[in-house]
Amino acid sequence: MVSTEIRVRYAETDAMGIAHHTAYLVWFEVGRTEYTRAMGLPYRQVEQSGTRLVVVEVSCRYHQPARYDEVLVVQTTVRVLTRATVTFAYEVRRQDDQTLLVEGSTVHAATDSGGHVKRIPEVVAASLTGTGRKTKG
Amino acid sequence: MVSTEIRVRYAETDAMGIAHHTAYLVWFEVGRTEYTRAMGLPYRQVEQSGTRLVVVEVSCRYHQPARYDEVLVVQTTVRVLTRATVTFAYEVRRQDDQTLLVEGSTVHAATDSGGHVKRIPEVVAASLTGTGRKTKG
Amino acid sequence: MVSTEIRVRYAETDAMGIAHHTAYLVWFEVGRTEYTRAMGLPYRQVEQSGTRLVVVEVSCRYHQPARYDEVLVVQTTVRVLTRATVTFAYEVRRQDDQTLLVEGSTVHAATDSGGHVKRIPEVVAASLTGTGRKTKG
Amino acid sequence: MVSTEIRVRYAETDAMGIAHHTAYLVWFEVGRTEYTRAMGLPYRQVEQSGTRLVVVEVSCRYHQPARYDEVLVVQTTVRVLTRATVTFAYEVRRQDDQTLLVEGSTVHAATDSGGHVKRIPEVVAASLTGTGRKTKG
Q1: What is the three-class DSSP state of D108?
Q2: Chain C contacts of D62, Cβ < 8 Å?
Q3: Rounded distance, CA C42 to CA B59, Å?
Q4: For residue C6, which of C64, C97, C58, C67 has the smallest C-alpha distance?
Q5: Strand partners, A58
Q6: Domains identified in chain A and CATH numbers
Q7: For residue D36, what are the contacts with CB-CB under 8 A and spacing of at least 6?
Q8: Mean pLDDT across chain A
Q9: Chain A: nearest CA to D130, how far in angstroms?
């Protein structure tokens, strides 16, 4: 599990005075980026090597709202890995009292840069589950 | 079922050259706005009368990508209505060939303007299911 | 001058209860897209033919706020055209009372798809100023 | 001058493969938030005490693009302070080679929470220019 701090931006709030529900999906994406960096193979490099992890499913439950300037923590982990898909799970908490704000998950399919489905390359799969990193030790 | 046309904006695309997955949730929201207007009680008026329909759950499946300047159609309907929640369902299609791009649903809880959960007022419930409109006829 | 209708989305509002100031720049972009379509050479085709009009300057003055669900009109025109740049100007008005909300302009440089500055192709320049369309008549 | 680190999010890129030009204005806003925090009076508290600093003017020049996952530094300062307005200036640089990507400025008018123009309260003015902090020393 990889933790990433996020501070709610004014632009992310809406007329209800709280963070808009789409902001959490952007923060999940930031969480994924940091997860892959922590695992030793940043998503930027995954893309540069010709693999995209395209979002094919999103699911999200909102428990409590977040407000402008609050510091949140996104906890990101990989829950399922198949030949061609990976499922990330997320929890977003308010940092100061650890209240759980939102839980969610995203499923991604591997494609080449032309958008055609393919298997997840072994080096990517290994880094996503942390087995790649362990092997190095 | 209420249909709303959307044209993909450049700002909604990402470095994959396709509409970012969060754009669909914004389009769902546009679909809801138009659904409530078509049912005779625009969401703006619902809020002004002291009821908010806060997003508590989102789920979304992505089948095909959308690209800049394509015209899409969001079909919005109410699937479930309980005392305190309403569930909307959406389908997003490319207009020119009717390809199904994305399906999703959102669950909303009714709150007052202070964010406290409450029952959905009868006039709002009636308009959401169309029974309010029929009564007028 | 080309007019485009925009309805303010909930996602475009912020905690002040008004449209966030960045939303207008997105609407300018929508205005440009519709301007180029009205002139007979949609920006999508400009890009497909290998020319990008990259934003190099933005300037914007905000007079009055816009609110959720209001219908706005973006008026877009080309103010200056040089060999390698084009300047668009915009006015955003509230539709129902024609109040001027925001004025702005954007300067764009022509580049190839690799991002290298180049001259604006003659067919693009002609369509931007409407001289291309006139020639057809 | 207050420096703030920003990492470019995937959601902030567009189909050109670079950060969308509106992203910089959001980063300016983050820069302002951090500027006010560094000066001892976070903007959140300014708003809570009944003063809003509404954007009335934006201007921005784009020199070089930013890409997904790059770390940028936003340098924020107050350039002009009048009775009822404050002008912030910004420079955005790529962190690793200090290349200047974007320069900009925003002008803000003070209003009460109802949106009516007012003078900037003395405590806010002092914190914006740093004279408040110095006084404490």
Answers
A1: strand
A2: 54-58
A3: 34
A4: C67
A5: A106, B60
A6: 2-136 (3.10.129.10)
A7: D42, D43, D46, D127, D128
A8: 95
A9: 21
The mean pLDDT value for D73-90 works out to: 98
Q: Collapsing DSSP states into helix, strand and coil, what is residue A63?
A: coil
| A42 inside 8 A of chain D by CB | yes
Name the minimum distance, in Å, from the CA of C134 to any CA of chain D: 31
Residue A35: beta bridge partners? none
Q: Which of C50, C45, C51, C109 is nearest to C80 (CA)?
A: C109
**Helix, strand, coil % over all residues of chain D, rounded to 5:** 30, 40, 30
Q: What's the ipTM?
A: 0.94
Q: Can C14 be counted among the known catalytic residues?
A: yes
Inter-chain touch C62–D60, beta carbons under 8 Å: no
Residue B63 near residue B109, CB atoms below 8 Å: no
For chain B, how are helix, strand and coil distributed in percent, rounded to 5?
30, 40, 35
CA nearest to C73, candidates C96, C102, C93: C93
Nearest Cα residue to C6 out of C59, C66, C60: C66
Q: Where are the alpha helices (DSSP H) in chain D?
A: 21-38, 43-48, 122-129, 131-136
**pLDDT bracket for residue C132 (50, 70, 90):** low
Q: How confident is the model at residue A101 (pLDDT cuts 50, 70, 90)?
A: very high
Q: Chain B interface, mutation test: which of C5, C10, C30, most B Cβ atoms within 10 Å? A: C10
Which chains have 3 or more CB–CB distances shorter than 8 Å to chain A? B, C, D
Find out whether B105 and A60 touch, Cβ atoms under 8 Å.
no
Residues B34, B2 contacting (CB under 8 angstroms): yes
Residue B43 to residue B29: CA distance in whole angstroms = 10
Residues of D whose CB is below 8 A from B20: 10-11
Total Cβ atoms within 10 A of residue B56: 19
- Model confidence over B35-83: pLDDT tens digits? 999 999 999 999 999 999 999 999 999 999 999 999 999 999 999 999 9
Owner of token pair 């806060």: B54
E strand or H helix at A46: helix A43-48
Average pLDDT for residues B111-122, to the nearest whole number? Answer: 95
Q: Write out chain C residues lying below 8 Å of A15, CB-based.
A: 10, 13-15, 17-18, 67-68
